[in-house]
Design brief:
Elements: H1 9-42, E1 56-59, E2 67-72, E3 77-81, H2 83-89, E4 103-112, E5 115-120, E6 131-132, E7 135-147, E8 151-153, E9 156-158, E10 161-175, E11 186-188, E12 196-198, E13 225-239, E14 249-259, H3 273-276, E15 279-291, H4 303-309, E16 313-323, E17 342-352, E18 358-367, E19 381-388
Antiparallel strand pairs: 1-2, 1-19, 2-5, 3-4, 4-7, 5-6, 7-10, 8-9, 10-13, 11-12, 13-14, 14-15, 15-16, 16-17, 17-18, 18-19
C-alpha cells in the first residue's frame, strides 16, 4: 500500500490564502452592514440628510473574472450642520409680522474619509493599489425656500413643497499609496522611487522606434497621486409632505468642477498630468421616491398593502457623467487603445428602512476607469450589489416641538 498523498507547501499556502480571502470578503460585507446599523442606532439626533454625497457599496462584478469584489466605504462626518435648524425656521412665522417664513440659510462643514478597494481573484487575493480618497474638508452653504401657499395654524407653518439649493467648496486627495514607477518597463533609481529609468533591453530585436513603442502604466505598484479643489452647485425639489415631516419624492441636479493645481501636497506629477488632466467636469441628476410613509396605520391596510410595507424605504434613480481633457503630450499617442476623456453611469437602488439603510443597487458604468492609476483603461461593466444609504431624510419639523 502506498503512502498517503500529502499536499505540498505551495498547495497548502494557496488553500490558506483562498480561505482567508473568502473570510475577508464575508467580514467586509458584515462590517459594512454593521457599520450602517451602528451609525443609525448610536445617533442621538436624526442622521443628517445627504445631498450629493457618496454612498457606501459592496459588489461582486458578475462578468469580471479578475476581481473578487469592489467596495467603497465612505464616512461623512458633519462637523457643523445647520440644515435641521433651517427647516425648523420654515415651520414658524416671523416674530415681527406673523407672516410665514419662506427662506432659511444653513452652513455645513463636512469631512469624509473614503477609500475604494478591488480585491483581485489571484492566488494571494491581493488588494492592489487601493484608492485613498479623503475629502479633507467641504464647506457648504445651503438655502431652503418654501414654495406655494403654506398652511398656517397659529404660528405653525406647513409647506407642501421646498427648494433646497447649495454651493459647496471642498479639498480632496486621491492616491493609491504606492511608490513604484509610473510606467511599466521602468525601475527606480533610488530606494524611494523618486526617479525612474528604463530597464535595459538585452535582446536588440525587441527594440522598437520610440515613436511607435506602446506605453502601459504600472498597475502593480505604480504611483498615482492628486490633490484637487472642487466647486459644486446643486438644487433639489422636495415635494409632498402630506404624510408627515418627510417628502414623498424629490428631484435634484448638481454640477461640479475639479481643479488639480500645481505645487500643492500630493499634486499630479509632471508625467501624470498630461494624461490625467488638470480639470474635470461632473454632472449628476437624481430622483428619489419614499415608499411606506403611511405604513404605521397597519390596521387600515389591506393584506397586499401590508406586504408592500415590508419593502418600505427609499428608491433612487441616478445618472452621472464626467468629462476630462483629452490626453496630451508625447506619451498620449502611444496608448492603445487611446485614453477616454469621459465616463458615465446609470444606477437604480432601493434602501430598506428595516435594514437601517442597507439595500440593493444595479449600476451600469462605461468610460474612463475611476480606480486611480487605472484611468488609462476603459471600464464598461454592469454592477449588482449591496448599497448602504446611511443618510437620514429631510425633516421639515420643529427641532423642539414644545417650543412654538
Amino acid at each position: 500500500m502506498g503512502a498517503p498523498v500529502v499536499p505540498n507547501r505551495r498547495n497548502r499556502d494557496r488553500l490558506m490564502r483562498n480561505t482567508l480571502a473568502r473570510a475577508a470578503r464575508t467580514f467586509s460585507s458584515i462590517s459594512l452592514v454593521a457599520g450602517s446599523a451602528c451609525a443609525s442606532l448610536s445617533a442621538r439626533t436624526p442622521t443628517p440628510a445627504y445631498h450629493f454625497l457618496e454612498r457606501n457599496y459592496f459588489v461582486w462584478p458578475p462578468k469580471d473574472t479578475s476581481l473578487l469584489y469592489e467596495a467603497l466605504p465612505a464616512a461623512h462626518l458633519f462637523l457643523v450642520d445647520g440644515l435641521p435648524l433651517a427647516y425648523d425656521r420654515l415651520t414658524r412665522t416671523e416674530d415681527a409680522t406673523g407672516e410665514p417664513r419662506r427662506n432659511a440659510y444653513a452652513l455645513r462643514l463636512v469631512t469624509s474619509p473614503m477609500f475604494r478597494i478591488r480585491q483581485l481573484k489571484d492566488s494571494s487575493a491581493a488588494v492592489r493599489t487601493p484608492s485613498f480618497m479623503p475629502r479633507i474638508l467641504a464647506i457648504e452653504q445651503l438655502w431652503v425656500h418654501g414654495l406655494g401657499t403654506p398652511l398656517v395654524l397659529g404660528n405653525n407653518v406647513k409647506y407642501s413643497r421646498l427648494l433646497l439649493s447649495g454651493e459647496r467648496l471642498s479639498l480632496t486627495h486621491h492616491s493609491n499609496g504606492q511608490a513604484g514607477c509610473f510606467r511599466q518597463g521602468y525601475r527606480p533609481k533610488d530606494a524611494h522611487a523618486n526617479e525612474c529609468e528604463p530597464i535595459p533591453i538585452i535582446d536588440p530585436t525587441k527594440v522598437l522606434p520610440r515613436d511607435t513603442m506602446q506605453v502601459k502604466l504600472n498597475g502593480s505598484d505604480g504611483d498615482f497621486s492628486s490633490t484637487f479643489v472642487s466647486a459644486m452647485v446643486h438644487a433639489t425639489y422636495l415635494s409632498d409632505f402630506s404624510h408627515g415631516d418627510t417628502p414623498k419624492w424629490s428631484v435634484g441636479v448638481a454640477a461640479a468642477y475639479d481643479w488639480h493645481p500645481h505645487g500643492i501636497f500630493g499634486a499630479l506629477s509632471d508625467e501624470q498630468r498630461p494624461l490625467y488632466g488638470s480639470w474635470r467636469v461632473h454632472g449628476q441628476a437624481e430622483g428619489m421616491l419614499v415608499s411606506g410613509l403611511g405604513c404605521p396605520d397597519l390596521h387600515t391596510r389591506t393584506l397586499l398593502e401590508r406586504v408592500a410595507c415590508a419593502a418600505r424605504g427609499r428608491s433612487r434613480f441616478t445618472v452621472e457623467g464626467e468629462r476630462a481633457p483629452r490626453a496630451t503630450g508625447p506619451l498620449a499617442p502611444r496608448f492603445d487603445p487611446a485614453i477616454l476623456p469621459w465616463r458615465g453611469s446609470v444606477e437604480l437602488s432601493h434602501a430598506f428602512y428595516w435594514a437601517l439603510g442597507t439595500g440593493l443597487f444595479v449600476r451600469w458604468n462605461d468610460g474612463q476607469d475611476y480606480y486611480n492609476i487605472g484611468f488609462v483603461n476603459r471600464r464598461r461593466i454592469t454592477m449588482v450589489g449591496l448599497m448602504l444609504d446611511v443618510g437620514g431624510p429631510d425633516l421639515l419639523r420643529k427641532k423642539d416641538p414644545t417650543n412654538p
